[in-house]
Amino acid sequence: MSEVRDKALLARQTTSKLAALTTEQKNAALIRMAEELIAQQEVILTANQEDLKLGRESGLSTSLLDRLALNEKRIREMAEGLKLVAELPDPIGETLESTRRPNGLEIRKIRVPIGLIGMIYEARPNVTVDAAGLALKTGNAVLLRGGSSALRSNLAIVRVLHDALADTAIPPQALQIIENPDRASVDELLKLNGLVDLVIPRGGQSLIQTVVRNASVPVIETGAGICHTYIEADADVQMALEIAFNAKVQRPSVCNSMETLLIHEQFAREHLASIVARFRDAGVQLRGCARSRELAQGILEATEQDYATEYNDYILNLKIVDSLDEAIAHIETYGTKHSECIVTNNEELAARFLQQVDAAAVYHNASTRFTDGFEFGYGAEIGISTQKMHARGPMGLPALTSSKFIIYGTGQIRT
Q1: If we measure between CA atoms, which residue out of 205, 174, 173, 210 comes closest to residue 189?
Q2: Using only C-alpha atoms, what is the Rg of the chain?
């Protein structure tokens, strides 16, 4: 039997036990996991240094190395994330609907665990902890398949979490990680119908589309973020600059960072030069349309492929537009339905943007960097869904549940 199927079976066998756990038992396990991350952080950091060394030798970009890197602060944040999840309300058992039929049947619809969730992700070891915490809090087993560049870090984290779970009501077998870095292990995971109930990919557009095209198990499409900020003609100059700068530079390696800045031509005529200077001073490479290159120096030519690229790096596209409608049309063409922003003092234009732009999160006068489970009050997140079925936007605990109908009778039969 292959490693993938063997570990899926081990995890699957724990699902009935997980579904029966109390909230107190699950929360106690999450707290132990958080404590053990801190207690064994040197083990994790040593493994992470090995991954970083190999990553530098193999030519990983600065942004990917940033995603991969762990330090005491990031491990502390991972542990705090588990504690936050433990503090959140447990959705399992929540009554979603309740009705009594004329024949006396009482019908309730309640939240239940999904079962076994497969998680496929790239070079972010924190996802290992987030996925484990959210899945186990909702009574789900989880089968992880991280990127090869973070393999040593991920294995170390899972070993630490297994040590923690050994002292709790959650069986360690409920948390599994695939060690085989070969692409074939992903292909096999995507075909484990009857064992895996749901697959969630988290990473770049190429990974997500590979999963969506090849999976025969259900998939929630997440994460690819070609996000835009549109500055209207009347926008407050300082606000617009701060929002755009934050959306690109605060952490460019993540999916909610801005990739294209759309600017109304009236605003651009007066302020583009100062915008360009600020981004250049921060080390951002700028690529723009012909009109932007006429208004400011130091902008490379942007191609159609540039506008369709999720850089996750210090690269930004610029495009001058004549109207809100043109900005929305550009977003419709190149956006990935993740996060989009308008900066304007015109409430009517803002309302049109918020209504017409098709994305999981739309912003008025705020950075797209807030599209995040922590910032939305969900504790950790398992991903940001860009599809429209079941879950959309940052996926917290409720997104990792299904439902079942429970019917109470007193001897009714159907005639």
Answers
A1: 210
A2: 23
Average the pLDDT over each of 113-117, 293-297, 384-388 and give the range with the smallest value: 384-388
Token reading at 135:
């899945």
84 in Cβ contact with 378 (< 8 Å): no
Per-residue pLDDT tens digits for 309-330: 999 899 999 999 999 999 999 9
Percentage of the chain exceeding pLDDT 90: 83
Amino acid, single-letter form, for residue 6 = D
With CA atoms as reference, report the closest residue to 326 among 296, 349, 360, 359. 349
CA 332 to chain centre: 21
What six digits make up the tokens of 128?
């290992």
Whether pTM > 0.85 for this model: the answer is no
HEC per residue, the chain: CCHHHHHHHHHHCCHHHHHCCCHHHHHHHHHHHHHHHHHCHHHHHHHHHHHHHHHHHCCCCHHHHHHHCCCHHHHHHHHHHHHHHHHCCCCCCCEEEEEECCCCCEEEEEEEECCEEEEEECCCCHHHHHHHHHHHHCCCEEEEECCHHHHHHHHHHHHHHHHHHCCCCCCHHHEEECCCCCHHHHHHHCCCCCCCCEEEEECCHHHHHHHHHHCCCCECCECCCCEEEEECCCCCHHHHHHHHHHHHHCCCCCCCCEEEEEEEHHHHHHHHHHHHHHHHHCCCEEEECHHHHHHCCCCEECCHHHHCCCCCCCEEEEEEECCHHHHHHHHHHHCCCCEEEEECCCHHHHHHHHHHCCCCEEEECCCHHHCCCCCCCCCCCCCEECCCCCCCEECCHHHHEEEEEEEECCCCCCC
Rounded Cα distance between 121 and 145, Å, is 7
CA distance 250 to 342: 18
Reported confidence tier of residue 390, pLDDT bands at 50, 70, 90: confident
**C-alpha separations of 397 from 12, 139, 191 in Å:** 20, 10, 25
pLDDT given for residue 339 in this prediction: 96
Compute the residue count for the chain: 415
In angstroms, the CA 310 to CA 258 distance is 9
Query: Has residue 379 got a pLDDT over 70?
Result: no
CA distances from 343 to 208, 244, 294, 362 (A): 30, 9, 23, 11
